[in-house]
Amino acid sequence: MEFEPIIVGFLCNWCSYTGADLAGTARIKHRPNLRTIRVMCSGRVDPTFVLKAFAAGADGVLVCGCHPGDCHYIEGNYKTMRRMELLGQLVRAYGIDERRVRLEWVSASEGERFARLVDEMTLELRQLGPCKLRPTVAALANDFDGLSRAVTAQVAASGEVTHG
Amino acid sequence: MKDDCRIGFYICNCGTNIAKVVDAEQVCERIAGLPGVACARAYKYMCSNPGQEMITRDIRERGLNRVVVAACSPRMHEPTFRKALEAAGLNPYLLEMANIREQCSWVHDDPRAATAKACDLAHAAVRRVRYHQPLEKVEASYAPATLVLGGGIAGLTVAVELAEASQPVYLVEREGKLGGNVGRADLTAPYLDSARDILAEKIARAEASPKLDILLRSELVELRGFVGNFRATVRTTGGPTRDLAVGAVVVCTGYQEFDATRIERLGYGRFPDVITSFELERRLRMGRLETDDGRIPRYVSIVHCVGSRNPRYHPYCSRVCCMTALKYGHEIKSALPAAMVTDLYVDMLSFGKGGEDFYRRTSELKTMFLMYEKGDPPRVRAAEPGDDCGLLVQVNERLSGEVIDVPADLVVLMVGMEARADGGDVARTVGISQDRQGWFIESHPKLAPVSTATEGVYIAGCCQSPKDIPDSVAQARAAAAMVLAHVAQGKIEVDARFAEIDPDRCSGCRMCNELCPYTAITFDPDERRSSVQSALCKACGTCVAACPSGAITARHFTDKQIFEQIEGVLAWSSSRSS
Amino acid sequence: MAVRANPHLIEELEKYGAQDVVKCYHCGNCSATCPFSGGTYLFPRKSMRYLQMGLESRLRATLEPWLCYYCGECSDQCPREAEPGETMMSMRRWLTSRYDFTGISALFYRSWRAELIAIVVVALLTGIGLTIFGLTYGDLNVYDGEGAFLPAAAIHRFDWAMAIVLVILLGINCVRMWWFTVGGDRGVRVPLREYLKLAFLVPLHFFTQKRFRQCNEKRPWAVHLVLMFSYLTMLILIMFFLHYLQDGPAINWVAHGFGYAAALGLVGTAIYAVHGRIKKTETHYRHSHETDWIFLGLLALVSATGIIQHVLHRTGQPAAANVLYVAHMMGVVPMLVLEVPFSKWSHMAYRPLAMYLSALREKAVAVESAPADKRAAVAQTA
Amino acid sequence: MASTTRVGVYFCHAGTGRFDGIDLGDVAAYAHELPTVAATVELGVRPRLQPDRLAAEIRQRQLTDIVVAGDSPGHFKPVFTRAMALAGGDPRAVRLASFGEAGANVTSPAAVAKAIVACAVYGVPLGLAAAPVRVPVNPATLVIGGGVAGIETALRIAGGGYKVYLVERAATIGGHMAMFDKTFPTLDCAACILTPKMVAVGQHENIQILNCAEVQSIQGTPGDFRVRVLRRARRVDPDACTACHACREVCPVHVPSEFDVGIVDRKAIYMSFPQAVPNAYVIDGEHCTWVQTEGAKCGACAKRCPQDAIHLDEEPRTIEIAVGNIVVATGYDIFDAHRIERYGYGRLPNVLTALEFERLTNASGPTGGKIVTRIPRLNKRTKQEEWVFDAEAPAPTSVAIIHCVGSRDANYNSYCSRVCCMYSLKFAHLVKEKLPGATCYQFYIDMRAFGKGYEEFFERIKDEGVFVVRGRTARVDARDGHMVVRGEDIVHDRIMEFPVDMVVLAAALQPAVGTPRLAQALGVSPGADGWFTELNYNSDPTATNRGGIFVAGVCQGPKDIPDTVAQASAVAARVLSSVICGSIQISRDPISTTAVEQRAAAMAAARPEA
Q1: CA dihedral sign of residues B237, B239, B241, B242
Q2: CB contact under 8 A, D488 and C32
Q3: Based on the domain organization, do D300 and D376 belong to the same domain?
Q4: Does A5 touch chain B (CB under 8 A)?
Q5: Which of C25, C32, C377 sits opposite D486 (nearest CB)?
Q6: Is D403 on the interface with B (CB under 8 A)?
């Protein structure tokens, strides 16, 4: 049987989650590999969430927010954008392929785009195969505070601070 | 893990919407085995009366203290089920929904995979709901004043309606006068009433009302605050910039006409006698229904669906053009009794009250109706010398299968409606979304056709999608009803979701202060601690994610809740879990 | 090459009785209702379309109006009260005027006054002519035999002379009809063999009107058949056996039997039609063009005078019979000279001819174009 | 300047027949006496007007302004405008005096017509000159009809904190929408939209549902109506009933279910659908054995009921309620498809109306949402063969959907029912979705996909492989054991004749049966088509010519759910506006011509000269 990756998706409530719902109302079929978690804004997506997802067994993480300039919260998605750059370094540091983390913009009217995105990412992850984690990371899976500390340390180490 | 949880799990079949792909019984079974789950049930329509009663009964009889509903999108029925919890005396925030319809059964075909996904989503919801806390809604005052954007027929109607219900209204119009696009028309279909009279009365009433403040040549530049307590900054050209306290905003910014030059074969811009419907309207109003060089046209051709129902331009129907074109049939025959009118249409959408009768009467005026295929608009060319007309319109006529040339001295293009080019600015300012065509999106076309994603911001009229005058007026009044219902209460319950800062953990780094787009976080220099003003916070959670001390909690979106959810979705399906 | 639309044609056809065609919104109900519609010939809707669009050349080439017998079902069901049946009727009138090379037909259909004047003029000429002839060569008090006022032989010769003129006029019009519909159409090529093979269709349809019987409503067919057979019988009697009817005192009961039956048929159908048109009892009687009334008037006049003169003659009142005879002829002549080639009665030639031509056309289309031709396709979706 | 103003008043009727009762001569004589009127001309019905001749007349009479008066005078406005331009005058000085402006049915049409003409002469809107009177209002509201329109209105008004009485003829609220499976164009289920609203109505402290009830008479004036409501005997106490279904099992009487439009049976004690609000059983007195035998027989349900909720001897009663505003939301009924014999409805078992198909395809319908054909079966009770729906019956391999059945047809209803095109497309989608192998044909005249997302939906249906045929079906015949549909495929220039297993008739919407009686009780007459007439098509589409009485939803004219919801909320705005102010605007009828004229003259004088 072909490998079926599991993707954890963090979708902002106003654009992307609505867009995913639109894919539903418009019955735009796509692959069933995504597991959605709703957040109010993509800006809420803490790097620890991403790490946690990998630690808990996800093969990929998709973060979706409103298009730049369209954020319901004015500029939350810009913050996400900067944070995701950082996150790229972070996952690399943990030995995870950067392609397993994606940040995409999906507006409330882009059901089609959302469906395509899920399909694309599923295919890509299939090729990458299951996500293998270093044991230290895997151990963090059930240790929230430890995870939090690890991320903060990593952030500090990278010399980058989340300025607004 | 909380051990005192008694979770009720309910899965909705949604008729067959969910059940035809997702095996609800199987989901039920698997969830029932999870720790803390006191009962798991499936029902045909959870949102209906018996469905809701099932929940309330179980809460009362089985002592449930958490509820998970796996059904449609929470955007649709979260409020419904929260009410059910409240009815049973349970805090509404102890509910979690798993979206297994829009994001599962409707988009997947494979029952096995869809059921697995539904299980994961339900599992996640169950894990998450354990960490839900009872939250109390905050009551806020509701400012009686309303800001209406746009002084067209919809905006005027909202404003007059509210003002005559003795509520203060600010009517903001970008142009120098009220009336909008209706003000450009002479008569209205199908009863040929005077558009000017309709507007004149409304404008007179608006101007006479002491409660109504008309701000011409003005624009909304910023909107802060939240429902019931907005602060709107309105800038008037050559005037002061005002800061208004309003409880609600009604957006009635209308539409703009399609640029007919985009369809080259229609010859607009190339032939002076190819004119748009608005140009014809002006000629009719001025009593100068003539060709460019002042001749009286013997043949007038009216082309429907210019820019509408055409995949290359706009896929949608502009809804009013057919009736307007029929109206032109009458008007042209009245002004020029000898003229022959040809009407080139795709489908005749004379659907409104009196519409079909109007269509019949127009055909009795010997209007020649010709049908062309959607996406194959007619071609306009200059007539040959010796012809008794100035132009020839070539059309592939579907009802006869013939390619024919129609003589014309004047060609009228029924230009469709399109979303205003500046719609994006308005949408961003007031915090609403636009669809692919640029129309503003309503919360739900049937549940809440005038509400938007932002509470307290309503849309009415053509900015939502094309519509005729009665429908715009009805929608405008519907928006007024939404406002009035709140105004009558004088207060509003604000969502209990907001961020909180734990003063003990706050290091006073002030990083969050700059991040907050709503300036809801203030810094106390004496205490060297930041704190959130809950009424201003819109719960985006940006500060939560950024706080280096982990001192900020997003109520109802806590780290723990999301962590549980992450584990929940992966517990059964991940490649490493099995 | 695109065809030119003519918004004015509809106004022209209005004079022929097509007042309601403007209301048609092309739902196609009429075409689907009509048992004759299908294959190459889709009507009435498509003919109505040509008319609305003013495609005169297309319309002139159509045979469809002749394939319609006006059972009225399409008009009854029409959701827009566009009267497809009456529109087809008007198109038959218009086509008649197109076939007619003299232009008289067009004049008559567009102005009932002109037709009436022409009838009166012809009637008066006939009356005066026959009176002078009778007084010169015979005696008003003699009806038959030697010295008869209007001797059967003379009338016979007169009838034949008239018939030849009529046949020539009608013949030319028929040729024009052929040219417009089949002969002049470069898209249709009918082998001579087919012309001969299908020639039987003309007499077949002329005598049996078997298509008419396929209408869902049978009564109009029956009435029409009675009228036509009565008329034919009378025509044959007059053209070949006039002396049996006119000469006495011996009575040829065979000829008289036919004559009485035919007279009864003519009078009966005339009364039926007049009553129907006044009371609008059937759909095809709902709308009456002026020419319909003129036709019925003439028919009634001719029948009545014919019967009365015969009664007078047989009851031994030769002078009165002769006067009525003249009056009778004053009806017969305009009816034959004006109505047959130029107005309503011409359809007795055009309709069977149309059956023939339509069969030819269908053959040609079937032969020439491959199955790809959409006009020929009758969808049989399994 | 008023001194040089010379107004010509031209009277011409468009011939709609609505104002035939008005003596134009009388109105003209009145108009002639107005100070600025220089000439009055009566032109009669549908005059043929030539602009150049009119221009000459305008010049000759030195007219500066023109008023065109009559029913729908707008028909003649362009010719007068042009004539004015030709005569060198101001084309904007052509004004209309439309007799319909004050509503269609007024008690003193002549006085209103005069007032309208006077206002037009002065160039003052009637709505301003005939300043409405405001009287105190009772804050309670009566909503007649518990369909989606009534529900929406009731919820909005009640949401403002005011009392609402919701009168519903049936035992449950919900109306037609409760019967639907999915709604176009998003295809979300109707129940998911409606039932929560129904629950909200049922639970709302400000809404009192009066089910099994009908409005008998209305007395009083706007703001202070007294309404007598007949409450038919429900015979089951809705508060005590727990919907345990025990009664249903013992009831011996089978009746065709109205909710399932007769395609399946229900018992004499029944609940229309499981989600009914109030969620309780009801006894159909016309079929109940106990009721029909006056207590002599049966009564099994009452004995069986564990809650003692059944009171078979309950009598109908009349209650009186006092309200300030009345909202009419009585909706529609479906056109009786038997009337078009050639479609074979009633004769051919697999010819269904749209509502029947809606129930058939509904997940909570008789077949659980499976689309199947009707099959003959022996009814063991009556020993007769009946055609029934059975979930195990064969599915149709081809379905024809015929549009405009009873709509857009002068022989039945000349209006367009506005929703049929879209629900027919929805049906096609459902057929394709549930029976991917089935062929589906749509026979339409004009595809009216006008709303947001509708045209896109149409395109999608075509992409799904539905055959969309432009042409109306003429007839449906039974031939060799199957049905044959005959229609013209206009675009492809052929007559289509093909066998199908199922025909769905998109039957028209018609005013609900009780509409004329209710209209009489309310004192507002329905229009020519039977729908309630709005005060003003454009600016007041929800008011009637009687103040305090509003119309919402389909009872004013066919409309789809979004439009109905919008209109229903719009009515709520009017009601809320009056109750918030504490006073209601009452109608301008009967009108005082002199008062209107004086006020208009004063307003015209006060107006700054342009």
Answers
A1: negative
A2: yes
A3: no
A4: yes
A5: C32
A6: no
Q: List the structure tokens of D553.
A: 């939803």
Task: Encode C228-251: b = buried (16+ Cβ within 10 Å), e = exposed.
Answer: bbbbebbeebbeebbebbbbeeee
Distance CA D413, CA D244 (A): 44
Render pLDDT for D98-112 as a digit per residue (tens, 0 to 9): 887 766 556 778 888
This prediction's pTM: 0.88
Alpha-carbon dihedral C110, C111, C114, C120, rounded to 10 degrees: 110
D391 touches chain B (CB under 8 A): no
Report the sign of the C-alpha dihedral through residues B310, B312, B314, B320, in that order.
negative
Q: How far is B321 from chain C (nearest CA, A)?
A: 18
pLDDT digits (tens, 9 = 90+) for D140-192: 999 999 999 999 999 999 999 999 999 999 999 999 999 998 899 988 778 87
* ipTM score: 0.89
Same domain, D422 and D496: yes
| Rounded to 5°, angle at Cα C11 from C8 and C16 | 135
Q: Which one of 3.40.50, 1.10.3470, 3.90.25, 1.20.120 gives the CATH number of domain B7-135?
A: 3.40.50
Which chain B residue is nearest to residue A163, measuring alpha carbons?
B511
Do B101 and A24 count as a contact with CB atoms less than 8 A apart?
Answer: yes
B264 CA to chain D: closest CA distance, Å? Answer: 24
With 0-12 / 13-18 / 19 or more C-beta atoms within 10 angstroms meaning exposed / middle / buried, residue B232 is buried
pLDDT for residue D364 is more than 80: no
Residue A73 to residue A82: CA distance in whole angstroms: 16
D374 and D389 share a domain? Answer: yes
The correct CATH number of B499-554 out of 3.10.290.30, 3.30.70.20, 1.10.1370.40, 3.90.226.10 is 3.30.70.20
Which pair of structure tokens corresponds to residue B533?
Answer: 């003003």
CB of D187 within 8 Å of a chain A CB? The answer is yes
Asked whether residue D359 falls in the same domain as residue D485, the answer is: yes
Q: Touching check for A127 and chain D: CB below 8 Å?
A: no
CB contact under 8 A, A27 and D187: yes
**D507 pairs with which residues across the strands?**
D405
Q: How far apart are the first and last CA of chain C?
A: 36
CA distance B451 to chain C (A): 40
Give me the DSSP letters along B125-157.
HHHHHTT-----PEEEE--S-EEEE--SHHHHH
Residue of A17, A51, A74, A142 to mutate when probing chain B, most B C-beta within 10 A: A74
Structural domains of chain C ordered from first start: 9-99 (1.10.1060.10), 104-358 (no CATH)
Domain endpoint, select from D280, D314, D348? D314
> Do B145 and B168 meet the contact criterion of CB atoms below 8 Å apart?
yes
Beta bridge partners of A62: A9, A102
Helix (H, G, I), strand (E, B) or coil at D395: coil
Chain B contact residues (CB < 8 Å to C): 299, 340, 342, 348, 359-360, 363-371, 394, 397, 399-400, 402-407
Decide if D124 contacts D34 (C-beta within 8 A). no
The answer to whether B569 contacts A35, with C-beta atoms less than 8 Å apart, is yes
- When computed from its CA atoms, the radius of gyration of chain C, rounded to whole angstroms, is 23
User: What's the gap in Å between the CA of D419 and the closest CA on chain C?
Assistant: 18
Segment D458-502, tens digit of pLDDT: 999 999 999 999 999 889 999 888 899 999 999 999 999 989 999
What chains are in contact with C, requiring at least 3 Cβ pairs below 8 Å?
Answer: B, D
Residue B574 to residue A59, Cβ atoms within 8 A: yes
The token duo for D279 is: 């969620």
Residue D2: per-residue pLDDT: 44
Last-in-domain residue among D457, D481, D510 = D510
Distance from CA of D342 to the nearest CA of C (A): 10
